[in-house]
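Technical annex, item 7. During the second reporting period the consortium partners agreed on a shared format for inverse folding records so that results from different sites could be compared directly. Each record opens with the tokenized structure and is followed by the designed sequence. A conforming record, contributed by the partner at site C, is shown below for reference.
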């Protein structure tokens, strides 16, 4: 069980969903997708999850592909206490380095604002798909829980739809919507107050 931070009010539903993902006993790496509109607490939830579990959190921004790879290499070096930034020539190596974080235990690996990275490199979803392919050693030997997150709702909605590379790979889809307003016009206390969707990918082997 992962303790919910004392400073986090309500959000019990969302926290339980993330906790289940971050402690899943299954072997192999997992994939989750989290979406939520801005200023609804999504980033706070994800940062708190990583803080409580020793996970890795990386927030993308609008940048070139090269700049994002460099930033990720620096963030990973800080997380691993490496003496110098890690260098990645492509996202293939970067994604494998993220999976390697879960070599010893289940650990959440969060990439927030994932749409920014895809806008700079549209091949990134298919790279993630191939990295998580069944029987691939880097996936089988990892227990990373890769969480791809974003606040661009239209993009996140397309991420697993139609002919998208990761469509159909999720064995569990969990959707949490804002509750209807009470008679006072506000959300009921203790109920989810953001739209957040969590998909957990347990690719059959």
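Designed sequence (site C submission):
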């Amino acid at each position: 069980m992962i303790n919910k931070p004392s400073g986090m009010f309500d959000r019990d539903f969302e926290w339980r969903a993330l906790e289940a993902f971050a402690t899943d006993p299954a072997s192999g790496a997992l994939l989750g997708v989290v979406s939520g509109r801005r200023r609804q607490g999504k980033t706070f939830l994800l940062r708190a999850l990583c803080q409580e579990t020793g996970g890795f959190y990386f927030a993308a921004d609008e940048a070139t592909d090269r700049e994002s790879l460099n930033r990720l290499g620096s963030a990973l070096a800080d997380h691993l206490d490496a003496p110098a930034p890690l260098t990645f020539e492509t996202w293939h190596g970067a994604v494998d380095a993220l999976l390697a974080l879960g070599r010893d235990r289940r650990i959440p690996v969060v990439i927030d604002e994932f749409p920014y990275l895809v806008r700079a490199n549209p091949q990134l979803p298919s790279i993630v798909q191939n990295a998580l392919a069944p029987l691939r050693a880097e996936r089988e030997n990892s227990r990373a829980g890769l969480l791809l997150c974003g606040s661009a709702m239209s993009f996140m909605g397309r991420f697993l739809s139609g002919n998208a590379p990761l469509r159909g790979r999720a064995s569990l889809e969990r959707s949490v919507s804002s509750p209807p307003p009470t008679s006072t016009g506000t959300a009921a206390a203790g109920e989810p107050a953001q739209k957040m969707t969590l998909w957990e990918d347990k690719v059959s082997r």
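The beta strands are 30-35, 56-59, 107-112, 144-150, 172-176, 196-201. Residues 179-205 have pLDDT under 50 and may be disordered. All partners now use this format for quarterly exchanges.
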